[in-house]
Amino acid sequence: MKTLVVCNWKMNPSSWKEAKKLFEETKKAAGKARSVSVVVAPPALYLRELSKLARSIPLAVQHAHADEGGAHTGEISLAQAAESKATYAIIGHAERRAQGETIEDTNKQILSALAHKMTPILCVGESTRSIQGEYFETVRSQVKGALTTVPQNRIATIIIAYEPVWAIGAPRPMAPRDMHEMGIFIRKTIVQGWGDVGHAVTVLYGGAVDSTNAAQILDEGDVRGFLVGRASAEPEKIKALIQSLS
Ligand code: PEP
Known about the structure:
- The protein is an alpha/beta fold.
- The protein is built from nine helices and eight strands.
């Protein structure tokens, strides 16, 4: 199975010219790495133009509203994102939750993404950790809440990106053994709600991943790939990261 690298460009780069260059470099590196598959999540206004540059690199929307239309100034809908060629949807990123996105919102977005034949990438993760282990409950409620009423036959198509909030933008990722433990916990949570198909759910890790740590995380962290922020938004860094995995 290929390692999945989801490139979350966030609000970068600052011009279409740079976006095109970053995309071309990412595509070139992905083309040489047979064991890696890459999804790019650019700012939404670049989706349609980027989709013309490569079919081999699927596109994701970084966030979109569940409603089909209406009075939501500044938002775009999942329907519009799908029509603009996004086939994946990042849902519940920590930076969106920090701006007030609720578990109920993530549930509506998952259902809307599925209705528009998109693959949801659900981001979950605790803000802090303490020895009492309450972070397991936090992640359980994010997973169960977002997936409420998702039919059993669609559950294995959902991708979960485990991103401890304290590791996003941090100097170092979390320890692979802790990822391993959370990966098992997430799959167990889904199995409890939806049965054995939950074992097939893809779990990614996100938080301070780059070319210096990705291969080791893959070896020891029991994850199928990564959601990458900073290291995906610079041509040299994403090239090095993809090369380190191939
Ligand atoms: C993220 O924002 O999802 C993320 C993982 O960021 P970074 O790789 O920069 O830590």
